[in-house]
Amino acid sequence: MRPPRRCLIPVAVLAAGLAWPSATLGVAAAGAPSIGPCPTLPADNVWNTDVSGLPVSPSSAAWIASSGGAGQHIHPDWGPSGTSVAYGIPWQLVDSSHQKVPVSFQYASESDAGPYPLGPDTPIEGGSSSTGDRHALVVDTSTCTLYETWDTHYASGGSTAGSGAVFSLSSNALRPAGWTSADAAGLPILPGLVRYGEVQAGAIRHAIRFTVSRTDTSYVWPARHQAGSAADASLPPMGARFRMKSSVDISGFSAQARVILTAMQRYGLILADNGSNWYFQGDTDPGWGSGVLTELKSIPAGDFEAVDESSLMVDPNSGQARQGTAPAPAPPPATPTPLLLHPVPPVLTPAPVAIAVPPPTDAPAPELSPSPAATPSPDTAVGATPSPDPSIVVAVPASRTTGGGPSARDALSAAIPVAAAAAGLGLFVASGVHLWQRRRRRRLLDG
Question: Which of 244, 348, 378, 440 is deepest in the core (most CB within 10 A)?
């Protein structure tokens, strides 16, 4: 994994506040992750939030294509190396009795001054003679403070590093906008490592850190820094989050592999640095065997998708994530919804048609043959049930309905034949009454 490139120009956080409407919120880890006696960030931190219900990002396919394509296999970047120094990123627990030393930084303007709990006992990524990233991760358990450095060189006469960051593991605070950390994205490293102890315990309850070779010159929350190679929207930005698709069947994998893959489906991966495509990082615990690593290498990047987690953001300067259990929304349409060029006309509700019937007399009333009732169509909505009352009222929905009901246009179409039938029946009754009155008058005149 090549050393992360650093950029001193702050870049505004992209996508702040750009949430999908009614997007599903995240779910805090049940039993938040911890390391030693300390939490690994608060339970509602974005690293520890289940994103299995978030919408897919519109950029998902492009970002995967630019990072080796769907056929690129993921790669666990830890485990046995065949030498005395295992692959992976080591970490160390110390207490307040451990010495703390000043460190001179290459990127001092974006590094926390310290001092840092470094010493000859501090494990360095790749070993003491490594020419790689040389990360050092140390947790002071007396204060639950995480100290991380990149390109770390301890010396009794004066220690140096490329950059360094100090995090309170009990806080959701992020780095200042535009600042790097020991990672190019300005994020902590330890909360995103696959740790052997977690796998053995049966659950990883946080997102996993990973790298790609080329990134955009932008970053998205919760990242704070970019190290992009080009201003290209087809390249993923620092902080981009991916998850394994829920449709991927992981039942055939070993128990250890299933723990890791389940975390990828629930919590996903966060793009944290430049490096080899789809390399994701774990620790250097000697318990790791090569079998589970071989299993993981069989999985293609096409089994993943990028998600939009902007709806989780509470504050752009905080890693706190909104929590909830709303149902997953439908993905956004591939093409814009066309404009309605011919608006639906308003629904007209006809006035009741009242038929005046004269009072009964001793003369026999004419027998009228009723008109056959109009046969309603299956989707016709008629609000009033016919009754013996000669007044006929046709009820038509007053407006477009929601929730799958008939539209205003459908209601209007259904109302027209019913109204016509009512008008015809009224005309027929009126004509009969008029004919009966004429005959009665004639009989009176003849008599």
Answer: 244
Nearest to 92 by CA among 58, 121, 128: 121
From the CB of residue 221, how many other CB atoms can be counted at a distance below 10 Å? 24
Distances (CA, A) of 424 to 352, 365, 380, 385: 14, 21, 19, 18
Tally DSSP H helices, then E strands, for the chain. Answer: 5, 16
Calpha distance 99→275 (Å, rounded): 32
Could you say which DSSP state residue 96 is in? T
Residue 373 lies in a domain: yes
Residue with tokens 């004419």, as numbered in its chain: 366
**pLDDT > 70? residue 438:** no
SS3 content of the chain, % helix, strand, coil (to 5): 20, 20, 60
- Sheet with 279-280: list strands edge to edge: 75-76, 279-280, 208-212, 269-274, 241-244, 304-307
Residue 357, both tokens: 């019937």
- Please check whether residues 63 and 163 belong to one and the same domain: yes
Predicted local distance difference test score (pLDDT) of residue 439: 54
Q: Is 297 exposed, middle or buried (0-12, 13-18, 19+ CB in 10 A)?
A: exposed
Per residue in 405-418, pLDDT (tens digit) is: 444 444 444 444 54
Same domain assignment for residues 353 and 276: no
The answer to whether 225 touches 179, Cβ cutoff 8 Å, is yes
366 and 273 within one domain: no
Give the residue ranges of DSSP H helices in 86-216. 196-201
Closest CA to 148 of 178, 176, 175, 177: 175
Answer whether residue 3 is part of any domain.
no
Q: For residues 265 and 245, give the distance between their C-alpha atoms in angstroms, rounded to a whole number.
A: 6
Question: Which tokens sit at 424?
Answer: 């015809």
Counted domains in the chain: 2
Let me know whether 219 and 171 are in one domain: yes
| Contacts (Cβ under 8 Å, ≥6 apart) of 331 | 55, 56
DSSP codes joined into one string, 131-155: -S---EEEEETTTTEEEEEES-B--
User: What is the domain extent for residue 151?
Assistant: 27-312
Measured distance CA(6)–CA(181) in Å, rounded: 10
Residue 90 tokens, joined? 């080591």
Task: Give the tens place of pLDDT for each residue, 118-138.
Answer: 999 999 999 999 999 999 999
Residue 232, SS3 per DSSP = coil
